[in-house]
Structures are given as C-alpha cells and as structure tokens.
C-alpha cells in the first residue's frame, strides 16, 4: 500500500512539473527559472502583438465559388443535371489548381502562362460535356463574365481614387 502511494506521488509530481515547465515555454528542457519566465513573457508579448494585427481574409472554399458560377451558367447554357455535376467537378479541380499555382513562387510571366494553360485546359474539358449549341452559348457566357470582371475592377479603382482625393 505504501509503495502504491509513493508511486502515485512521484507520477503526480512528474506530471505537475511537466505542466508548469510547459507553461513557461521550457517544455521540460534545462535552464534556470529566470530564463524560463523570461521566455514565457516574451512568448506572451509576441502573441499579444499578433492579435492586434488584422487577420488574413479567410479563403473561400472552391465549392462555394463553383456553386456561384454554376448558378449563372446552368440557366445560361441550359445544362442538365449530369452536365452540372461534370462541369462542377472540372471547375472545382481548376480552382484548386489555381490556389496551388498562386502559392508557388513563379515569375509573373511564368504565372500568367500557367494560368492561361489552366484556363485553356479547363475550357477544353468543359466543352467535352456541351452540345454544339451550348458551346456557342458558353463562349458568350465567358465573354460576359470577363466584361463583368473588368467593369467591377474599373469601379473599384474609381472608388479608390475618390477616397485618396
């Protein structure tokens, strides 16, 4: 009975020591108490400074973007449900690939070439699921979307100029 109590006391002491040292950023490694406290304070100070900085905008999931595109594309091209599923899969794959390309460090010229190649591949895959009539409508749909983006960019730049003045 006495042996069990001794073992329990030792185990409790080891766990509490580990918890205390982890709180001071030491994680059980050597060093004196003064350094442990100093490191803990520095870590707390740096984490407080990070909280005051603005957070990065949250990344929009590919599925959400695809759903928005398909909401416009389905009636414009008169797609059936099978086409919607197939094209959604192609667009999801394309958007995820865009994310990967953005995170890789390429020169701006190489990145533009990669995005153009991805766009061409995506268009080719989408066209495989469309009839001839839908392919013509798809070309018009793409042009309309490009024009909408350009219009939005122009209005944003005008608003930014107005704010500066």
TL;DR of this structure?
The chain is mostly helical and 165 residues long. 82% of the residues lie in helices and 0% in strands.
What characteristics describe this protein?
0% strand; mainly alpha
Can you give a write-up of this model?
The structure is a single chain. This protein is mainly α and 165 residues long. The protein has six helices and no strands. It has helices spanning 2-23, 33-52, 62-77, 81-103, 108-128, 132-164. Helix 3 (62-77) packs across helix 4 (81-103) and helix 4 packs antiparallel against helix 5 (108-128). The longest helix has 33 residues, at 132-164.
Please describe the topology of this protein.
Layout: H1 2-23, H2 33-52, H3 62-77, H4 81-103, H5 108-128, H6 132-164
Class from secondary-structure proportions: mainly alpha
Strand content: under 5%
Would you report the number of β strands? 0
Residue-averaged pLDDT: 77
User: How helical, in percent, are the residues?
Assistant: over 70%
Return Rg in Å.
29 Å
Main β-sheet description: none
| Unreliable spans | 33-37
């Amino acid at each position: 009975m006495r042996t069990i109590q001794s073992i329990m006391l030792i185990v409790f002491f080891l766990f509490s020591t580990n918890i205390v040292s982890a709180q001071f950023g030491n994680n059980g490694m050597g060093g004196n108490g003064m350094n442990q406290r100093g490191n803990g304070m520095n870590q707390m100070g740096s984490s407080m400074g990070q909280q005051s900085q603005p957070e990065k905008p949250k990344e929009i999931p590919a599925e959400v973007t695809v759903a928005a595109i398909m909401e416009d594309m389905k009636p414009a091209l008169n797609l059936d449900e099978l086409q919607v599923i197939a094209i959604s899969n192609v667009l999801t794959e394309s958007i995820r690939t865009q994310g990967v390309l953005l995170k890789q460090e390429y020169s701006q010229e190489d990145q533009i070439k990669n995005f153009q190649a991805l766009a061409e591949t995506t268009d080719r895959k989408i066209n495989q699921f469309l009839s001839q009539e839908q392919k013509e409508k798809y070309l018009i749909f793409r042009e309309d979307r490009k024009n909408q983006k350009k219009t939005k960019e122009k209005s944003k730049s005008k608003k930014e100029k107005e704010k500066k003045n």
